[in-house]
Amino acid sequence: MKKVSFAEFGGPDVLRLTDAEEPHAGPGRIRIAVRAAGVNPVDWRIREGQKLGAHPIELPSGVGLDAAGVVDEVGEGVEGVEIGDHVFGEGSSTYAEFAVLSAWARMPEGLTFEEAAGYPSVVETALRIVREVGVQPGQTLLVSGASGGVGSAVLQIARDRGITVIGTAGAANQDYLRGLGALATTYGEGWVERVRRLGPIDAALDLAGSGVLRELVELVGDPRKVVSIADLGAPEFGVRFSGVAGSVPDALAMAADLISRGRLHIPVEKSYPLAEAAAAHIDSRAGHTRGRRVIVV
């Protein structure tokens, strides 16, 4: 089978499309014929060799955590899923023609494989950080870097829970944020005052790692009410860095419910073939994403 992997840490040029042995589903796992794989910032952070305790790896390594596809192997002890089912979920080395998943759910009706591949890690992260930051219905949450996949999910999950959201993003994404129910403003010079004019802030999330933690703490007034998923220097400001996943099966079930009720939709901004995984990483790292990027197999 074809698989994207890397034998050394470094830039996107270390990624190679190689021939590899097919993985197989062990106990409690399933294997899918991958139709699409989600592109997440954690993918290129791991490839660069960033010290992410939740994702220790050995070289050479495959790439990718999220995927959607067709079940073609069911491991021992697995119930409730059959060969031929369309599922989305989380596993390892998902930039490949076949991948083993450790958590999965049936794809909601009407969802394409490309759309479904963009949800697993994104929704798990969004649910986790909304919980960790402690924002409650009726309060206001500030989301810095709100137009990407996690931001798109946070805005919609918060709206579903009766939380007001202020989102910062580039000028081109202001209407996109408003369409998701957020109060929107641009980042850049003067952004703190622009946020203040929109109202008091009860909690804040840093999704872009753009060096704004000091200002977020200032706006909220309490570093314990700020969470970052992108700035490894967060503890220097008394801010929690959230990088360890919670229950992915629970998140997938919640995602399927929200999607089925029409309360969650994350658009696919761009799709890439396996051979262009490096380009996907370059674009993901550059930011300014509206929704998700995916690899199509």
UniProtKB/TrEMBL annotation:
<dbReference type="Pfam" id="PF08240">
    <property type="entry name" value="ADH_N"/>
</dbReference>
<dbReference type="GO" id="GO:0005737">
    <property type="term" value="C:cytoplasm"/>
</dbReference>
<dbReference type="InterPro" id="IPR002364">
    <property type="entry name" value="Quin_OxRdtase/zeta-crystal_CS"/>
</dbReference>
<dbReference type="InterPro" id="IPR013154">
    <property type="entry name" value="ADH-like_N"/>
</dbReference>
<protein>
    <submittedName>
        <fullName>NADPH:quinone reductase-like Zn-dependent oxidoreductase</fullName>
    </submittedName>
</protein>
<dbReference type="InterPro" id="IPR020843">
    <property type="entry name" value="ER"/>
</dbReference>
<dbReference type="GO" id="GO:0008270">
    <property type="term" value="F:zinc ion binding"/>
</dbReference>
<dbReference type="InterPro" id="IPR051603">
    <property type="entry name" value="Zinc-ADH_QOR/CCCR"/>
</dbReference>
<keyword id="KW-0963">Cytoplasm</keyword>
<feature type="domain" description="Enoyl reductase (ER)">
    <location>
        <begin position="10"/>
        <end position="295"/>
    </location>
</feature>
<dbReference type="GO" id="GO:0003723">
    <property type="term" value="F:RNA binding"/>
</dbReference>
<dbReference type="GO" id="GO:0016491">
    <property type="term" value="F:oxidoreductase activity"/>
</dbReference>
<dbReference type="Pfam" id="PF13602">
    <property type="entry name" value="ADH_zinc_N_2"/>
</dbReference>
<dbReference type="InterPro" id="IPR011032">
    <property type="entry name" value="GroES-like_sf"/>
</dbReference>
<comment type="subunit">
    <text>Homotetramer.</text>
</comment>
<keyword id="KW-0694">RNA-binding</keyword>
<keyword id="KW-0521">NADP</keyword>
<dbReference type="InterPro" id="IPR036291">
    <property type="entry name" value="NAD(P)-bd_dom_sf"/>
</dbReference>
